[in-house]
Design a protein that fits this description.
heterotrimer, A: 4 helices, B: 95 residues, mainly alpha, 78% helix, flat, disordered C terminus
């Protein structure tokens, strides 16, 4: 019994380095990913790259806290719904060209703001945002499901 | 004999690859038509400074739409194939 | 072509050869992750930061994680 407790303590002491490192890296990852998504039309990056960077947070949470931490932190059912909402948002901003009297996927509201502002390039900004939402939720959901396979027993 | 044929065809493929890459690096790049239009009119037509994003989300909008549906299909496939893992996350079914 | 560029390309080739020839599967996965980060560095040196971000996050993080999950699920391919 005593030895068991000692082993547990050693395991905890080994894990604390990974835990502190992941706690330090997690906010930086989230803020950098959202920056890449929102500044997609000004600086290098875009929806897909920022979404993939944000969805790496799932891996960080798994490394630090295991599958129980993922179960407490994320809500995969809502993530699935949010991914479909992102897809519908993209289709709506494509249809906005038809509603404004041009062809499909036409950038009809591009002259809002000056070039160089944060909210400047019309539908490009919103399409970036919807693709980023879609990619981060989709790849995060895939990673959560694949990590949960480790818990399921065979047969 | 099999080994000889393998090395022979690998040699042919290597020669063709070097020949084609040499031709590509020497020949002048075609800069007219739609490529010239995209490079010249990016800021006028879209007001976006990053021209890669302007091309991906504006001039090539259909392409990105299909790409996003590909991701949607991939997520659906993962959720269908690994449905035991999706179900195993609920609280009443664990242990 | 600068010296750094040549070194990065040599590192890519070495990582690819190690990935193809090594026997242990875990070492193979880790050297594939190293190959992904070398490719991202090469894209950055060729002035394509867009592709470098995507390659660095997909090739160096997501693919090794998914392969390690599969390796852990089949218990190293031994049973």
């Amino acid at each position: 019994m005593k030895q068991n407790k000692k082993e547990k303590k050693e395991k905890k002491a080994k894990n604390i380095i990974i835990k502190c490192g992941c706690d330090f890296l997690l906010p930086i990852t989230l803020v950098l990913g959202m920056y890449i998504i929102l500044h997609g039309h000004l600086s290098p990056g875009g929806g897909f790259q920022g979404g993939v960077v944000v969805s790496a947070a799932v891996v960080l949470v798994f490394l630090a806290y295991g599958n129980d931490g993922i179960r407490k932190t994320f809500a995969p059912d809502k993530m699935k719904v949010t991914e479909n909402i992102g897809s519908l948002m993209y289709t709506f901003f494509g249809l906005l060209g038809i509603l404004m009297g041009a062809n499909f996927c036409r950038n009809a509201i591009f002259n809002i703001g000056n070039p160089g502002d944060l909210y400047s390039s019309g539908t490009i900004f919103w399409m970036n945002f919807s693709v980023g939402l879609k990619v981060m939720m989709g790849i995060g959901f895939m990673l959560i499901v694949m990590l949960r396979v480790l818990d399921v027993k065979n047969e | 004999m099999k080994r000889f044929f393998t090395i022979f065809f690998l040699a042919i493929i290597t020669v063709i690859a070097f020949y084609v890459s040499g031709i590509i690096s020497v020949s002048p790049s075609p800069y007219n038509g739609v490529a010239k239009y995209m490079v010249d009119y990016t800021i006028q037509k879209t007001h976006a400074l990053n021209s890669v994003t302007a091309i991906v989300f504006d001039f090539r909008g259909y392409d990105t739409l299909g790409e996003s549906f590909v991701l949607c299909t991939a997520v659906t496939g993962v959720a269908v194939i690994l449905r035991k893992a999706v179900k195993g996350g609920r609280k009443d079914e664990t242990k | 072509m600068s010296i750094v560029n040549t070194l990065v390309i040599i590192g890519m080739v070495v990582c690819a050869i190690v990935t193809a020839t090594v026997d242990d599967v875990l070492s193979c996965i880790i050297s594939m992750g190293a190959l992904g980060s070398f490719v991202a560095l090469e894209f950055l040196l060729l002035h394509a930061p867009d592709v470098a971000i995507a390659e660095g996050s997909v090739g160096a993080v997501l693919t090794p994680v998914i392969f390690i999950i599969a390796l852990k699920k089949v218990k190293g391919g031994k049973e």
